TrEMBL record:
Gene3D superfamilies registered for this protein in UniProt: Glutaredoxin (3.40.30.10)
Higher taxonomy: Bacteria, Pseudomonadati, Pseudomonadota, Alphaproteobacteria, Rhodospirillales
Protein name per UniProt: Uncharacterized protein
Protein species of origin: Roseospira navarrensis
Classification via InterPro entries: Thioredoxin-like_sf
Domain of life where this protein originates: Bacteria
SUPFAM superfamilies recorded: Thioredoxin-like (SSF52833)
Length: 103
């Protein structure tokens, strides 16, 4: 999750979903990783294409961007967008449920 300390929509996502997201099946497939858009990005995310708006949720698999959700328009729409995004992941090898984190 690319976010900004001044982003109202980021704050709303954290209020609506922050406490429950880590407990979901979706979190097992796409653990949340928070990155401040205005600071240097971690080295392993430098290959991700530009992010201009917050929040932006980027799903990463094997160092490559699978897809992203830009913005937050409420919990129901977020869950729908996330379920569609997770369908783009390749099948987990050896039945492993845990994957690389998204951002």
């Amino acid at each position: 999750m690319f976010e900004s300390p001044t982003c109202h929509y980021c704050e709303q996502w954290h209020a609506d979903l922050g406490p429950i997201y880590p407990k979901t099946a979706e979190s097992a497939l796409a653990p949340l990783r928070r990155v401040n858009l205005h600071q240097d990005w971690p080295a392993d995310l430098r290959g991700i294409r530009s992010v201009s708006f917050t929040p932006t949720f980027v799903l990463v698999e094997s160092g490559q961007e699978v897809g992203r959700i830009t913005g937050y328009a409420g919990d129901e729409f977020f869950w729908f967008q996330l379920s569609e995004l997770l369908k783009k992941l390749p099948p987990a090898e050896d039945g492993a449920a845990q994957r690389e984190g998204g951002s």
